[in-house]
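Sorry to interrupt, but I need a hand with the structure work. Could you write out one complete protein record for me, on any chain you like? Could you add the entry underneath, on a fresh line?
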Amino acid sequence: MAGRVSTTQQNQKQEEIELLKFSSWVEIDLNAIAHNLQQIRSHSKASVLPILKGNAYGHGASILAPFLISHGCTLLGVGTVDEALSILSLSKVPLLVLAPPLPHQVPLTVKHDITNTITSDDQLETLSNAGVQQRKKVMVHLKIDTGLGRLGATHEEALEIAKQIKRLPFVSLTGVFTHFADASHDQRFTGLQLHRLLQLKAEFNKLGYNDLVWHAANSKALLSSPNSQLDLVRIGTLLYGQTPQSLDSTWQLADTWEFKTRLIEVKTLPPGHSVGYSREYRTKSALRMGVIPVGYNHGLKLEPQVAQWRQFKHALTASIKTKPFVFHEKKPLPILGKVSMGLTCLDLSGAPELEVGDEITVKMRRATSNSSLPKVYFLNGQIKCILWENQIFHGGQWKTSSTNLF
């Protein structure tokens, strides 16, 4: 049963934190999450379905799940059954899995009251049997392929599935949805997809399905196709302060996520010294450099520097300057040479005050950041909790449940 960690484990964990002070970690601003949720609600009359796939885009789904429920969300979306079970191991929240389950996963989804997505009538028998065996109603949303060409039933298949569900007492259809192929750029095709879904809705109404939740819009569609909001909007990037396209002045999103690390070595290299694998970077003069314990294993997959033999070609293009990825108090620290698995070298010429142990900020894709990194959550300017190794530090104790955290 979920609960507290033993006193011995508590002490060991606390000693580890004091000893390590985390060489690399992620800071998450819960006030920013709440602010962005309010911004989304101010731009939509539909209910908001926060999307927690990809470990909540690198934010830690098991903490964000109860936080979002505490802020009025009634259903949360994930990409797979595996993600759902991972969240439920720490927090009991209502979840919709946006892809169909594998047959062997169905009994677990029924046991944990997970709402499943179905895309074909082949899945109905397995779902119905699991419901019968456990004497529980199986909630499902039906996904329609209106033009993306991935998951989903056709118009005709959807009507047949709806008729079959009428004959299955332990399967309950509660929602129908589709996913847009190019909501940011192709408004004509987005409108066609929406039209196809609404045509189906009219036919479902004739079958007696008058109380279903219909949804199509994601973050991009919320911005570009307001008429696609329907009953529910599935929001990922906007919730996390990321903008898929330019926003008008009515939007004021807050940044929610920051990757921090510390310098583990600082030294001066002589002129002509190579740095990193393949020796792609060589110093032209004496250079003060530092090393951080971050690499592509942590999600820093981009390599701003290019090999010297390619530098001339790049100098002839408009993209000669590379975007900085590493900072200290907003000062950019250029990456030297290749990013390796667990180490990255930095040019400290612009920050001569830096020493071993100083904090460094790294810009990287949130969803691809290593999920095992410690995550420190801030609320109202104070540390609310820490998520580390699937345990939660809160109120001076380590726990294995986030259910009553908020």
